[in-house]
Design brief:
By secondary structure, the chain is α/β, with parallel strands linked by helices. It is built from ten helices and nine strands. The chain has two domains: about 170 residues, Rossmann fold, CATH 3.40.50.150; about 80 residues, no CATH class.
Length: about 280
Amino acid sequence: MDLGFAQAGIETIQSLDIDAASCNTLRKNFSHNVIEADIAKMTVLDQPKSDVASLTFPCTKYSTIADIHGTRTGDELFLHSFRHVALERPEVFVVENVPGMKKFKVVMECFQKIPDYYVTTLCPLDASLWLPQKRARLIMIGTRRPNFITAPTVSTRTRLKDVIEKDAQVNVPDAVISRLKGEYRDLPIISDPAKDDLAPTCVAHYAKDRSTRLVKDMAYKYGARPYTVREFARLQGFPDSHVFTGSENEQMKQIGNAVAVPVARWIGQSIYKYFN
């Protein structure tokens, strides 16, 4: 989100994240203040006053995959995001999450019905407008004055073949081979650059299991392989100049958790128009 906002001409003054590797990556790429802390323990009015508050919170409790484990119950962390909006009263706030959050009426009511704000909800807003990745999201933009925001229209999209590294060197874990052989309950999703396929959603869980989504590559024994870190980042719209810190798994987790850069840029551009 910080990178997309910067591309839109918005200056970020502070970021907050609980994950150490994510904070190190932010510090590596930006000069603004980065706080590594739990938002649940942060007081609001001690923070620098800002015109825009951009918020997101863990989506695992809102995702359909949580149904499998019986944990799709919502999460209270959204209340701390709401607390920051309610107490600071910024001119604009942005909430980003998965479409499944829409089913949680308490969460939606908090942000959509907050007094003195005009709230536009876009759902689903899919990163595939810009990128070769299926990534549907829910975006809420609240403004103190009436603001007409419409869904973006994009004339060109990056193609999968444009993000794939030539002669990529990547480790193929045993789990990949097992899944390709049908030893798991489902087969991997294999995307073919030659067919202009869209890759499935980049997920943070890719840090733990590279076998679920693969790219076709005949240079490898089974004709497919996992994505490299750089390819994964490109699928999210990150330029090659953007540096990720931590282990390879930590980098994959950061990329999977990130807001797709073009989506963040479009949000930032919409906010910029509001102020100008």
